[in-house]
Amino acid sequence: MGEFKVRVIRSKRRTVGLEVTHQGKLVVRAPYHLNLSELEEILQRHRNWIRKKVREVQSQQTLVQSKKFCNGERFLYLGKEYPLHLVSSPRSALAFDGQSFQLSLARVGLARELFERWYRKQARTYLSRRVEQLAAITGFKFEEIRISSARSRWGSCSAKGTISLTWRLIMAPPDIIDYVIIHELAHTLEKNHSRAFWQLVEKHLPDYRERRRWLRINGFLLNL
């Protein structure tokens, strides 16, 4: 499979998992005992699926262009789009009033940095509170919450129970955010994506498949 960039992650899992990231890279999660020749055989067997997924990612990337931070451009926040207004006399470099974003004309050159800083601040508040709320509702226990800069991995859970969530999730609809949080909280009990893990997720989110599908299809939009 030399035509693709492949990253292999070994763990105690029993099966092989294949994932094409939003950057078009193939991530292979495999058991420790699986040798390279067996792994290569599995990749060859699924090469058509891999190629299809890579093409989908590439087509998505062509649809999404980097933000230009111009007047009227729309930005996502909690699943809704809001227009950007460039203003000459702003209250702050970047503000949000619930209807639109206002960016100082004098700070347009720093727009990307200002937006990321704003998104990070909202993510830390919203995601931290929501993890605590969902943990209390479901009974899951976690150690701490971290906000990451990951581009293609929405969340993770360490062996010690630390939940990490990318700040980019703050652009997603609340029900999608809840799915990612429940997914990671479930990993505090089930460390891999076994049948028991997905049953645990389904217990708390019966429609998790629809939410996961939304993220798989639309996740590329959650970016600057």
Please tell me about this protein's structure.
With 224 residues, the protein is of the alpha/beta class. The protein has two domains: 6-63, no CATH class; 111-221, Zincin-like (2-Layer Sandwich), CATH 3.30.2010. It is built from six helices and ten strands. The protein has helices at residues 36-45, 47-63, 111-138, 174-186, 195-204, 208-218; strands at residues 6-11, 17-20, 26-31, 74-77, 80-87, 94-96, 101-104, 144-148, 155-157, 162-166. The protein has a four-stranded mixed β-sheet with strand order 4-5-7-6, with helices on one face. A three-stranded mixed β-sheet has the order 1-3-2. A hairpin with a 5-residue loop joins strand 2 (17-20) and strand 3 (26-31). Helix 3 (111-138) packs across helix 4 (174-186) and helix 4 crosses helix 6 (208-218). The protein is globular. 21% of the residues are buried. The model has no long low-confidence stretch (mean pLDDT 90).
